[in-house]
Structure formats: C-alpha cells, structure tokens
C-alpha cells in the first residue's frame, strides 16, 4: 500500500505530537496523509480529526511513502518498533521537533530535513510558525489542535518553557478560532478514575522526610495491577513536588515483581538529576527517573530513603 | 492619621485584588499609598511589595484619605467590617472591578467613579489597561504582580473567562519582564499540607453516584478542626468535578456544629446553580454553593444525596 505522505510521532504518543499530525491531516480534507500510531491515548479523543488516526494493526502491507513527516522526535529509535517495521524506503523525510537535536543524520535511510528548535515550548508552536510562513490558512479546528499541543507541553502555561513570544502565538491561535477553556477542560478536567484511586493510595502512603523537604510515596505491584497498569498513574510525582515546602518528590512504583521504577521531581533551583544518575537513570534536571531490579520493594524503599535524606 | 490614597479590596482578599493593590503601590516608591487589608493570605507572599501590606490592627486612628481605590469589588458590603470602620469621609472613591455591577451608587458616602467591565477575566487586566492608557511605565515587578492576578483568576488559563485578547495582554506583561513560570510555580506548586490532608480525607470518603456522573464527599467538623479551619480546604470541590465522567461535584463541609456549607461545581453545559438556589444559595451557573442549619451531618447527607441523584 503506497501512501504519498505518512505522519509519525514518537512512541507513547502524546497530545503535542498527535495535535501536529492531526492539524496537518486536516489541511488536506480530500487526499489525506496517513497519520499512523501504535496506540491511541484516551485523553486525545477531543482533538479534531481524531478518528483519522490509524493503528499499525489496521495496515496490512508495507508503506512506501513519498514523504514521511516525523513530529516531536528526531531519531528513528524514538518511534515504536512495530510502527517502524511498516515503513519501507520513503523518498524523503521531514522532521519537526522542539527537543534537543539528536545524533541521527537521516531516518529510514532517506534524505532527511530537520526543522528543530529546542527554544520552542512545543512542536505545535514550531509547526504553527512553519504553516503560517508557508501561507496555509488554518481553520478553527487546526488552530485548536495546535493550541492543545501548547497547553499540554507547558502544563497549562506553568512550566519553565513558557517564555519568549509564546502568548503572542496563543493569541493568534485564539483569533483563528481555538477555544482555550475547551482545550483546558478536555485536558485538565478529565482526571481518569484510575488516577483518582492512585492519588488516594499515594496520599495514604505519603511520607514527608527532612522536615517536609522530601515527599516520598509508593505503589506496589498489586496496586498497579488493580489500577490497570503503570499508565494509570501518569504524573503523580509532580503532585508530590507541588506540596508546600517540598523541594524533592519521589514516587516509587513496583512495575513488575522484581522491577522498580522511580519518578523524581524537584523544585528549581534544587536539582534531582544527580540522584537519578546514581541509579543509572536520566532525564531533565528537575524531572527525571530510573529503574532498578530488586526483589524486595521494602528493602529498596529503606535504601532509597537513606539516599533521599542526604539530598542537600 | 490622614493618608492621601487608601487601597482596599474585598474581604478574604485574593491574589487578583492584592496584585492590583501592590502594583499600584509600587508605582509610588516614595510617597506610597496605603494598601490596607484585614488579613494576609499565605499564598500571596511572592507578590512584589508584599511587605507593604498593612493590617487593620496596625492602624490606630481613623483614616481620612483624599482617595479610596477599591479593587475587585464594587460595593462597601464586600469589604470587611473591621476595615470599613477605619475609613472616615474620603473625598473621592474609585472602583476597579471585573464582576457584575452591583447596586451601590456610592461608597463611604463619597462621590464614586466606577471602572467596571465584567467581560474581563480579572481586575488585574482591567487595571493594566487603565495604567497603560494613562501612560504609566510599568516595572517588571508591577507587570509580574498583574500577571499573577491573571493566572489566579483564570485558574492558569483554564476557566471559561479566558477569551478575547487576554493572551495579548499576557504577552505584553511578559515583554515588560513578568515571568510566567515563576508566577505559576508560586501559585500552583505550593499546595499547603493542610490541603493535602484535606484531599486525602475527601478521596477516602469519595462517593460516585449515578454511574459516576456525580462526585460527592464531605468533611466533618472534627476534620475541619484538625485541618485548621475551612480555609484549609480551598477549591477541593473543583477537584471533584475534574474527575473523568463527572458532571456534578459536591463537597459538604460541617463548618460549625449545626451549620453545613456545600460547594457545588458542574461541567458546562450542565448547570448546578438551580440546586444551590433550592437551598437558598447562589453563585455562578457552574460554580456555586449554599449553607444550611442542620444538627445532623449524616441526615443532611442522606437528604442531599436524594436531591443530587435527581439531577439531569
């Protein structure tokens, strides 16, 4: 099956990547590009054109597109394997991304053009500027998708990436017909019940160390099974950090019997990344994590707590 | 004690009113106006000029100012009694407010000018436009205070009042030197421990009615005493509404033995105001409340639940 334009985003697709894919798709109501994903997150169903997303299992043959456009990632290894396996010999690849440039020179063995700016808060902003410069006229639906990407990647304008002329861009999208409170409600008034239950457990287990400077909580393997898996507990580590007086937040998750995953968050200027690195993990200075293999969650918690209380 | 300019806001002062008072104060570094409050909320300490706020008990004599400026309210009855009692015969009163115009023709018995626009999302925006038109040059500190008022009154750009050219105004404030993520962190990464405890109780008592369309929880008088009073539980009703599938959220608080206060929230287009009115309460269509006198919290909950489950 040959499609002329194939749209991709990274694995575990999020609102920013999907919003760009769908915005682009909506530019071509007739001969539509193919927005292909390996899974569809439930919080994305409010995006316009959502039903056009195609899952890999719906595509039987290999795809040989004229053009692949990859949003919100700049390396093949960021794309799920299942999805990568579907793509054969594209003629050209175009990348739109706002993350730090990676070491990939070309993707899928094809000539690749990179449009990357790590100064932008989201790929939606970067892509909006491109569409605007290229003279496309954007419908309210397209503008609203792009706005959703901005809300998502800035945590509703709360993260450190909110700078420059971001609000100017948002104003332009609103003028085009995007509805801020609609997007915000879809993203933030839509707390899955599994998250509510996870939050209840996390709060009931909450421990404040070093006079309230460290917030620690955990979920056992049994908790995660009841909740429906790790996905159910998206971003509760950030909640721990948001408690008054807390500098460092840590959420420990026994994702499998014998495998423990830890999400770490800190308030600037206190960096938590060094702790993640001690355990072989990585990420951003104030938001990172690591995984370890340990048979006993209890023992890990004991060791980990000793490390935590030594933080500056 | 005669002061030429006295700055006031409504009782239970919030970030929007305080940000305007302090922004105005910072315009006059030498002969400062007097920003008078009956209490100082703890989440306001990041505002620039915060230490200039004066409490009523620090002022011994009556104040006879040339000018009173009231922010974020347009009627004398919105000001705390203790504070009102300090003010004697001002020459002139000026009101800046973004709420619906009330029935007061003049305040403190003086000629009063009203600058009111209920279309604006916050008084800070309204006041910013005024300062800009008047040609004041605003420092980064003043711009940041005004930005804080906008973040606060829009719930970080999530409420329905986010419309018009609000992002244009925000961009102007950022250009003047206001730091969005600093403000957001001060407001939203600062969850008081009492709130965390209240949230834990509310989650442990959470009941989902009508197949998850109604979220109900409650706090007893004893809970509230432990938590440090009603103030500790600011806005948990909105949290109930934010659960996926929930149309109506209700938080019942036994604020005194025999007195029950209920906060109601709904997702548009489902209005919850009619229920508040049934109990003699009021507010907005999607955010309102009421109070009743009842000896037994349990019996009230039983009655109230019957009313709740009949909601459309």
TrEMBL record, chains A, B:
Domain DDH: 5-150
PANTHER family for the chain: BIFUNCTIONAL OLIGORIBONUCLEASE AND PAP PHOSPHATASE NRNA (PTHR47618)
Gene Ontology molecular function terms on file: nucleic acid binding
UniProt name for this protein: Bifunctional oligoribonuclease/PAP phosphatase NrnA
Gene3D superfamilies assigned to the protein according to its UniProt record, in alphabetical order: 3.10.310.30, inorganic pyrophosphatase (n-terminal core)
Pfam short name (any one): DHH
Location of the DHHA1 domain: 231-308
InterPro entries reported for this sequence: DDH_dom (IPR001667), DHH_sf (IPR038763), DHHA1_dom (IPR003156), Oligoribo/pAp-PDE_c-di-AMP_PDE (IPR051319)
Lineage top rank: taxon: Bacteria
């Amino acid at each position: 099956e040959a499609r002329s334009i194939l749209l991709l985003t990274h694995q575990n697709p999020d609102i920013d990547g999907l919003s760009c894919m769908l915005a682009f798709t909506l530019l071509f109501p007739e001969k539509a590009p193919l927005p292909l994903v390996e899974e569809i997150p439930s919080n994305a169903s409010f995006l316009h054109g959502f039903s056009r997303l195609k899952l890999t299992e719906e595509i039987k043959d290999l795809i040989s597109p004229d053009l692949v456009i990859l949003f919100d990632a700049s390396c093949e290894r960021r794309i799920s394997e299942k999805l990568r396996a579907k793509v054969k010999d594209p003629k050209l690849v175009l990348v739109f991304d706002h993350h730090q440039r990676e070491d990939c020179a070309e993707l899928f063995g094809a000539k690749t053009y990179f449009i990357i700016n790590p100064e932008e808060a989201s790929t939606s902003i970067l892509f909006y500027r491109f569409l605007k410069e290229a003279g496309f006229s954007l419908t309210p639906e397209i503008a609203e998708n792009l706005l959703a990407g901005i809300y998502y990647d800035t945590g509703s304008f709360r993260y450190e990436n909110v700078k420059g002329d971001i609000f100017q861009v948002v104003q332009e999208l609103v003028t085009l017909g995007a509805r801020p409170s609609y997007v915000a409600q879809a993203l933030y008034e839509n707390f899955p019940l599994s998250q509510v239950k996870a939050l209840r457990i996390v709060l009931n287990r909450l421990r404040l160390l070093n006079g309230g400077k460290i917030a620690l909580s955990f979920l056992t393997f049994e908790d995660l099974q009841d909740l429906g898996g790790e996905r159910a507990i998206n971003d509760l580590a950030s909640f721990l950090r948001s408690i008054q007086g807390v500098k460092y937040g840590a959420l420990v998750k026994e994702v499998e019997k014998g495998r423990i995953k830890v999400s770490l968050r800190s308030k600037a200027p206190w960096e938590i990344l060094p702790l993640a690195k001690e355990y072989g993990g990585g990420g951003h200075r104030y938001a990172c994590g690591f995984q370890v293999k340990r048979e006993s969650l209890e023992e890990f918690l004991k060791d980990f707590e000793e490390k935590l209380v030594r933080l500056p």
